[in-house]
Write a structure and sequence with these properties.
Oligomer: single chain
Radius of gyration: 21 Å
Helix content: 25-40%
Structural class: alpha+beta
Largest sheet: 7 strands, mixed
Distance between the termini: 35 Å
Bound molecules: pyridoxal-5'-phosphate
Strand content: 15-25%
């Protein structure tokens, strides 16, 4: 029995499948490092699940994004459009290749990169010079869009792709938070020619850390494999064709990942049930609303996140965060919008009011797959008591 006041974490992994068995098998086989059967199996299993021809396992999701931009040939002098509301990894990856991130606001309904804002940014802030699409102020050549599926909800990829196609921009999918989600019945991760996943500890499927690059193009997969293994041309003579990276996933991590992936459907069902439970129990609380799900979307509900409108709820997100913390309940605000981040100071953006509102008002609630109804009741109880007190 869990004590009724035991701390409730934001998102803890469930390791109740074949994790220990596969890791032990991996240890006994000796193939613990970046070669061996588990890495290949993990790549095959993920590719099959998502429905893409090629998958290259990487040391992290951030590494996968970095390499994705490299294989797409993006580099110094280039610019890449990124949603301002996101974990910082995609913007950092743009910097790693020497390019400039351009930040675009999200829409207010599903909190994803706003295709209209994207189109507006391209219309107003860009120009074509000698056949090259440039950001006006910096002259950087705009090459790609990194579309992030935020909090497990798919971005409207059809609309993003339509805008991108008008400017011949490459689209890269950041599906790190959304493995298992579907966009008009198509799994995320196969909505673009390049996509990235993360298997960090708090993601829906974890390998204890790790990532994967998914692609429709064999040549890109081969190039990614080459770059992630130190660009080694001749393993015997140790000849390297260029500056590569040590970005491969280990067998130990892949073994864990294989076991987790077997449970993906159960993990998704649990995440969705948690979100539905919060939505149901909070439906009558004024000023509290769960991130909505589009009619064309099937969200993986990575983190169940509510918006707290202080005028209607009677308290703000900070007060709710503090009240939950006082009851041993971990919650988390959304990321600082990247156009406000000191790490990306000075990067162009087209104004991002929606992201700024969501940063002030959104809070992710405990979303561990093993969260039980009593724990959900505790979280809901704190929210309701604050609402009542405020009323
Ligand atoms: C988690 C995450 C990543 C990758 O993170 P790693 O910790 O490097 O695996 C990338 N993009 C987004 C949006 C993420 O949430």
């Amino acid at each position: 029995m869990r004590s009724p006041s035991a701390p409730i974490p934001l998102s803890a992994p469930r390791l109740a499948g074949h994790e220990a068995r596969y890791v032990l098998e991996c240890v006994r086989s000796g193939w613990i490092s970046s070669a061996g059967p588990f890495v290949e199996r993990f790549e095959r299993d993920v590719a099959e699940r998502v429905g893409v021809p090629c998958a290259v396992a990487t040391a992290s999701g951030t590494a996968a994004l970095h390499v994705a931009l490299r294989v797409a040939g993006i580099g110094p002098g280039d610019a890449v459009l990124v949603p301002t509301l996101s974990f910082i990894a995609p913007a950092n990856a743009v910097r790693y290749v020497g390019a400039l991130p351009l930040f675009v606001d999200v829409e207010a309904r599903y909190w994803q990169m706003d295709p209209e804002r994207l189109a507006g940014f391209l219309r107003q802030r860009c120009r074509v010079r000698q056949g090259v699409l440039q950001e006006r102020e910096t002259g950087a050549r705009i090459r790609a869009v990194v579309a992030v599926h935020l909090l497990g909800h798919p971005v409207d990829m059809d609309a993003i792709r339509a805008v991108a196609a008008g400017y011949e921009l490459l689209v890269v999918e950041d599906a790190a938070e959304a493995l298992g989600a579907r966009h008009r019945d198509v799994p995320v991760g196969r909505l673009a020619d390049l996509a990235c996943l993360s298997f960090n500890g708090n993601k829906t499927v974890t390998a204890g850390g790790g990532g994967m690059l998914l692609t429709t193009r064999r040549a890109w997969a081969e190039r990614a494999r080459y770059l992630t293994t130190q660009a080694k041309d001749d393993p015997v003579e140790a000849i390297h064709g260029e500056v590569g990276f040590n970005y491969r996933l280990s067998g130990l991590q892949a073994a864990l990942g294989c076991a987790q992936l077997e449970q993906l459907d159960e993990l998704l069902a649990a995440k969705r049930a948690i979100a539905a439970s919060y939505a149901g129990r909070l439906a009558d609380v004024p000023g509290i609303s769960l991130q909505a799900e589009a009619p064309w979307a099937w969200s993986s509900r990575w983190l169940a996140t509510v918006r707290v409108e202080p005028g209607r709820f009677g308290a703000d997100r900070g007060a709710l965060f503090a009240a939950l913390a006082a009851h041993g309940i971990e919650s988390r605000p959304l990321w600082q919008p990247l156009h406000r981040s000191p790490a990306h100071a000075g990067a162009p953006h087209g104004g991002c009011p929606v992201a700024e509102t969501l940063q002030r008002e959104a809070l992710s609630l405990p979303s561990s797959v093993d969260l039980d109804p009593e724990q959900i009741e505790r979280v809901v109880g704190v929210i309701r008591s604050l609402a009542r007190r405020a009323a």
